[in-house]
Design a protein that fits this description.
This protein has 5 helices and no strands. The chain is mostly helical and about 170 residues long. The radius of gyration is 29 Å and the shape is elongated.
Length: about 170
Amino acid sequence: MTNKKPAKTGNSASPQTNRAQKSRPQSSRAQNSRTSNNRAQNSRTQKSNAATSGSSLMPLLLVVIFLAGLIGAAQQHMLPYGIAGMYLTLSLLTFIAYAIDKSAAKRGKWRTKESTLHLLALMGGWPGALFAQNVLRHKSVKASFRNVFWLTVVANLAVLGYGIKTGAVDMFI
């Protein structure tokens, strides 16, 4: 009978020492996790500060100028009142849709589809959407959403401009 000793693995430390060594990397991981959480929180704070700074006044100013221009054009008989009324109504409905979606997001409830919000913006509710994005700070950070949103604004204004140029808006009189 031969006495066989178990082969050494190169680690002569006791099991307690092994546990202590294994726990060290976990604590450094936890520290790294806390550091990345702090960075993410600081980033969110910076984004929210940017949303409340003067940079957010430009879109609001754009909304006010556009709606005032529509109402002025309608009063000067350059544009039917129905068009101005349609933009105002759709803007209000779109703002409400954003507010409902923001509320649902906070409560973890069923959300409004992004395609629905884009469709409302495309149909003429983009001033209300832009106002909601800035006032409610909802859907204002996600780049892909913002890119599609601005495409809907350009498409809507192109259709409005085409309708004015060709006289197609006159059928709303």
